[in-house]
Amino acid sequence: MSKYKFLFSFYASLVLLSLLVFGIHILVLDSLGHPLFEHMILMAYWVNVLMAILIFSILYFFRFKWKDQIGFLYLGGSMLKFLIFFIVFYPVYNQDGSMDTLEFSSFFVPYLIGLLLETFFTAKMLNKLH
Question: What is the CA radius of gyration of the chain?
Answer without folding.
Answer: 16
